[in-house]
Amino acid sequence: MNESDRTAPLAGYRVLDLGGPLALHCTKLLADMGADVIKIEPPSGDESRRVPPFKDDLPHPEKSLYFLHFNTNKRGITLDIEKPDGRAILLELAGKADVVIETFRPSRAKELRLTYPDLSAGNPGLIVASITPFGQSGPWRDYKASDIAGIALGNLLYLAGEPGEPPLQPPGEIAYGMASTYGAFGIATALYHRLKSGRGQQIDVSMHECAGHIAGYFIPNYGYTGAKPARASRKGEETDLYDPYATKNGYARIFIIPVEQWRRLVDWMGRPAAISGPEFEKMSYRRQHPEIVVGAIAEFCRRHTKEELYEEGQKRRIAVTPINTAGEFINSEQVKERGIFVDMEHPVIGKYAHFGPVPRLSESAGEITRTAPLIGQHNKEIYCGELGMSNDDLTALRASGVI
After folding, report:
1. Closest C-alpha to 357, from 335, 371, 341, 370
2. Regarding beta strands 250-255 and 319-323, do their DSSP bridges make them parallel or antiparallel, or are they unpaired?
């Protein structure tokens, strides 16, 4: 198939983005796969515009790199949905949409009269994805929660760190990302269901549940056996060669399980006397003498760059993993060869490299076609061009604070 013949997989679907931080990744995934995502912001701009880092470290609603990352391919309008006229406009937009994504607390959605029945009253095929900290039911349904609350309550944080020591918070926004990913999957499933049934539905996504669901086998194992999950120690007898090793230019990790890999590693190191004895071929023995093993391997790694260790490890069929910085990731041969980053130009930020669509589809690939919208950038295009308002209508709405 020629590039020009491809159609983005979600081309033709319209999505209204009313979501907060919990849904940023969800709406980005849909937009990058070709959906017409309309980001609806309050007249003062979305809260994520105030999240650092900022271009040149200057706080500005059009310079948040956080906002820039999550809002490519979207059109943007301003609308105060708490005002009666704003709510009426939103319902009109919902009547023409395929999907609405929202992150209101359930009680807040009722106060605004923007529940699933409200939004879908004039559009029975509408799909509403409600992505919230704890879902639409249960005693916690109206609680607010941040990303760290999601990983803490979902068991992920409990499992991070050394036994007997405080949990270690992972970087990034894992719980937000998982809730968004499950939300995007639910939307794709609901759209497929609608092809046969003609009916929309509400998708109830709980960040709390998503964090627990992705936490590996620990929670299911507890459900089956009652066995309390335990952290794996990097020290002592539970693991072997776990810690990263310092190299000439950073860190690398070496992971050994089969005895053949251990033998190849010792040969590669020049068979140092301290660890060349047959007793060290047993993982149990190495675990009992970590200071000898770690000392020898640490000395070896310090003599090489992490790239040298990786390349030679590949040749010797030994699992060596260089620990990349952000710059090393972007500039790696693998990333460059796959063309992961796309050159973009934003009217305020200027030129920059943006992460391309993930995942890649061979027959209907997504693409990055536009930068994140400026505040209210597409007001006239959507309100006048699609809803039939006049310029005077737009002026009046702006004067009354609706847009």
Report:
1. 341
2. antiparallel
Q: What share of the chain is helix, strand, coil (3-state, %, to 5)?
A: 45, 15, 45
Contacts of 45 (CB under 8 A, 6+ apart): 61, 78, 375
How confident is the model over 109-122, as a mean pLDDT? 97
Distant-in-sequence, close-in-space partners of 348: CB < 8 Å, separation ≥ 6: 55, 60, 62, 63, 374
Closest by CA position to 20, among listed 1, 2, 46, 42: 46
Is 212 contained in some domain?
yes
The structural domain count of the chain equals 2
54 and 203 belong to one structural domain = yes
Residue 123 CB neighbours (<10 A)? 17
Instruction: Report if residue 176 sits inside a domain.
Output: yes
pLDDT digits (tens, 9 = 90+) for 150-206: 999 988 888 888 788 888 888 889 999 999 999 999 999 999 999 999 999 999 999
Position 274 in a domain? yes
Could you tell me if 18 and 133 lie in one domain?
A: yes
Domain match, 164 and 284 both: no
Residues 73 and 99 in one domain: yes
Whole-number mean pLDDT of the chain?
A: 92
Closest to 280 in 3D by CA, of 268, 294, 301 = 294
Quote the domain boundaries for residue 285. Answer: 245-323
Tokens of 335: 């990333």
Q: What is the DSSP letter of 25?
A: H
CB 235 within 8 A of CB 179: no
Asked if residue 257 and residue 380 are part of one domain, the reply reads no
- Under DSSP, the state recorded for 285 is H
Average pLDDT over residues 1-30: 86
> Domain for residue 74, yes or no?
yes
CB 75 within 8 A of CB 37: yes
Helix (H, G, I), strand (E, B) or coil at 219: helix
Kindly provide the b/e burial profile for residues 256-267, where b requires at least 16 CB atoms within 10 angstroms of the residue's own CB: beeeebbebbbe
Which SS3 state, helix, strand or coil, does residue 323 take? Answer: strand
CATH of the domain at 128: 3.40.50.10540
CATH code at position 253: 3.30.1540.10
